[in-house]
């Protein structure tokens, strides 16, 4: 079903890295009937890819094969097998980083991914061509538009804003009150460990409460909303 047949507005979320804090994020999304896309690094796990968030806590990735069910009802997308900066890789390394991540996602989650998010927000024309050759249909950058307009270039897709954006609630109110003729998309991205680091889970919950449960808004994954 293409949501545009029945709605003029859609909201979708995009969260990266597959970290432990996704558990709490998924609970909140579930409480409000919201859908997200999770961009995962299948070559990393609890013991690999760990790093220190300031002087507060260690960020661990989840052991994906063990938490498959956790993400049910949401979309899984490519984020690079080992979270490498794609613009610094030669052709063979680029292939390994993207194709192997897509294959492993398919193996673990039982469905081939159709989208991705750029690790470190890094991309160039060669990377975009590689995505196209692998059959990926959209890829998210980290450049905020503060806009809801549909975009022609889905392989360089720019989100509306990050969840910590100071305009988040202002954008929400604008989106909720608008009665557009053309389809409009509110696209929010981030990392769940940021809520833990900044102790602002409550702010996100308030946001979800405000934007959820509206009859004139379609709540879907990136794939459902963008394609
Ligand atoms: Zn990342």
Q: Taking all residues together, what is the mean pLDDT? A: 98
State Rg: 17 Å
The 3D shape can be described as globular
The name CATH uses for the topology is TIM Barrel
Number of helices: 7
Q: Which structural class matches the secondary elements?
A: alpha/beta
Distinct small molecules bound, one entry per kind: zinc ion
Helix fraction by DSSP (H/I, runs of at least 4): 25-40%
Main sheet: strands, sense, barrel: 6 strands, parallel
**Regions with pLDDT < 50 over 5+ consecutive residues?**
none
Task: Give the CATH class.
Answer: Alpha Beta
Percentage of residues in strands:
15-25%
Number of DSSP strand runs: 10
Fourth CATH level, the homologous superfamily = Glycoside hydrolase/deacetylase
List the SSEs and their pairings.
Layout lengths: L8 E8 L5 H10 L4 E5 L10 E3 L3 E3 L15 E4 L12 H19 L5 E3 L7 H9 L4 E3 L20 E2 L5 H10 L6 E7 L1 H7 L2 H11 L5 E3 L2 H5 L1
Parallel strand pairs: 1-2, 1-9, 1-10, 2-5, 6-7, 8-9
Antiparallel strand pairs: 3-4
Bound molecules: zinc ion.
The site of zinc ion (ZN) has 5 residues, from loops.
Q: Could you give a short description of this structure?
A:
The chain is an alpha/beta fold and 227 residues long. It has seven helices and ten strands.
What does the model show?
The protein starts with 8 loop residues before the first strand and ends with a helix. The strands form 3 sheets. Strands 1, 2, 5, 8, 9 and 10 form a 6-stranded parallel sheet that branches. It has a single domain, classed as TIM Barrel (Alpha-Beta Barrel), CATH 3.20.20. 31% of the residues lie in helices and 18% in strands. It has 227 residues and is of the alpha/beta class. Helix 3 links the parallel strand 6 and strand 7. It binds zinc ion. Residues 16-17, 79, 83, 119 line the site of zinc ion (ZN).
């Amino acid at each position: 079903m293409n949501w545009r047949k029945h709605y003029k507005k859609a909201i979708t979320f995009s969260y990266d890295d597959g970290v432990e804090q996704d558990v709490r994020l998924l609970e909140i999304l579930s409480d409000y009937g919201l859908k997200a896309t999770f961009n995962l690094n299948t070559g990393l796990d609890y013991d690999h890819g760990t790093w220190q968030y300031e002087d507060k806590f260690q960020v661990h990735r989840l052991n994906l094969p063990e938490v498959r069910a956790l993400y049910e009802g949401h979309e899984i997308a490519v984020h690079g097998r080992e979270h490498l900066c794609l613009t610094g890789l030669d052709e063979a390394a680029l292939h390994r980083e993207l194709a192997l991540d897509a294959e492993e996602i398919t193996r673990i989650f039982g469905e081939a991914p159709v989208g991705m998010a750029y690790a470190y927000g890094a991309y160039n024309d060669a990377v975009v061509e590689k995505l196209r050759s692998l059959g990926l249909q959209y890829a998210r950058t980290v450049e905020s538009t503060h806009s809801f307009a549909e975009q022609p270039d889905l392989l360089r897709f720019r989100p509306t804003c990050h969840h910590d954006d100071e305009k988040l609630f202002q954008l929400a109110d604008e989106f909720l009150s608008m009665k557009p003729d053309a389809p409009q998309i509110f696209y929010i991205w981030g990392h769940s460990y940021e809520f833990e680091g900044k102790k602002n889970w409550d702010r996100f919950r308030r946001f979800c409460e405000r934007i959820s449960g509206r009859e004139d808004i379609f709540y879907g994954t990136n794939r459902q909303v963008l394609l």
